[in-house]
Amino acid sequence: MMTSAKLALTAAALVTIGLAGIPQVKVVGNQLKQHGRIVRELKVEVQTLRDAHQILQKAYHNLEQEQTQLERGQSSLSSSNEEAYAEQERLKNEYQDLRTAQAKLQQVQQEIRSYHQSLLSSQEILSQEQEQFMVNFEQNLAALVDQDQKIQAELGNFSGLGQAIKEDLKLQMAGWVNDSKQNRLQNLREQVLTPVFQLSGGEAVGSAVLIHRQIDKDQSTYYALSCYHVVRDILEDRGDLDDLSQEVVTAIFTFPSGKEIEASARMIAWDISTDLALLEVQSDYTLTHVASLAPRSRQKDLGIFANIYTVGCPLGTAAQATSGEITRANWEVDGEDYWMVSSPAYFGNSGGGVFHADTLELVAIFAKIYTHGTYRPQVITHMGLAIPIHTIHDWLERAGYSELLPED
């Protein structure tokens, strides 16, 4: 490698030769060749330094990557150490729990052994008592056999009397059962069937239920529940009406004897959203029995599988009753709560009553029947919707007729 000192001496020699004016062409040529060789060596050395620099850069880059990987590995190792410490702590806790459970198990085993020993002792005592009992039983049995023979001899004279007593008891029981059935049927007629009556007008028919009677000097005033759409359909043929409360519809009451009485009814309160209507019925006659409206607290006793009677006037007939159950207790239609009932119903049942089969109280107003299809809709008679008792209570209170409601 040519140093800077050598380059300086060479340049000085050239200058000295030039100044001396000596034609040293060959010498100068040789020196130029030597200088060119020095330059080439310098280029090689520079290239070598560049290559070495690149190698150093790559080595430095690799070293940085290794350092990054080392740092990542160290971080992962730290996390693994923390997890290992946590796992070790968990295993310690589990081991401690196992030791505690083992101690309890040993205690239970000891108690079982003690109990088993106690059972063996008790079994031995019972065996001894059983032997003594059998001895006493055989002795008592022999005495009873002798006594029974004496009693049988004495009862032989009274066998005819005993048979007569049995026959008399059978007749009394049959009478009690028959009276009970008759009372049940009478209660059903008075409390369930007769309070329901027919509303009629034009081609529209429906039902309503008497819930209250107010006795005046000259006449009695009755209040009944029905559906708003029943009265609306009856009044539809009369055109546009300014005041529905002044319009009178025909109420037809059918007595158990078959006698029919017509009375005038008018709608004094109604609510379209709940489809409820309150009617006032004026009559000079004493009408049929009034239904017993259930208190609000009865709601808690009513749900799916509760037995009910549905009473209405389908197709304009006299009141008819069918039995069934509440099949859905929370069916919502247009934002209003309904019950679904399985007791068969048909057109004209709307506005009629749904009665609790046990208490015979009015617990709902029948409102709608499910239909299937649009071109020729099929009536699903066992899928009816009824307005439940809590909705009736809420509406009568809002309408200002809380005096018609029973106390809880």
Largest sheet: 6 strands, antiparallel, barrel
Strand order of the largest sheet: 1-2-3-6-5-4
CATH topology of one domain: Thrombin, subunit H
- The gross shape turns out to be flat
How does this structure look, described?
With 408 residues, this protein is an alpha+beta fold. Among the domains are: 46 residues; 213 residues, Thrombin, subunit H (Beta Barrel), CATH 2.40.10.120. Helix content is 49%, strand content 26%. The chain contains five helices and twelve strands. The strands form two sheets. Strands 1-2-3-6-5-4 form a six-stranded antiparallel β-barrel. A six-stranded antiparallel beta barrel has the order 7-8-9-12-11-10. The chain is flat, with a radius of gyration of 55 Å. The chain starts with a helix and ends in a 10-residue tail after the last helix. About 2% of the residues have low confidence.
Indicate the topology.
Elements: H1 4-20, H2 25-155, H3 159-193, E1 196-201, E2 204-215, E3 220-227, H4 228-235, E4 248-254, E5 260-271, E6 276-283, E7 307-312, E8 320-333, E9 336-341, E10 353-356, E11 362-372, E12 378-388, H5 389-398
Antiparallel strand pairs: 1-2, 1-4, 2-3, 3-6, 4-5, 5-6, 7-8, 7-10, 8-9, 9-12, 10-11, 11-12
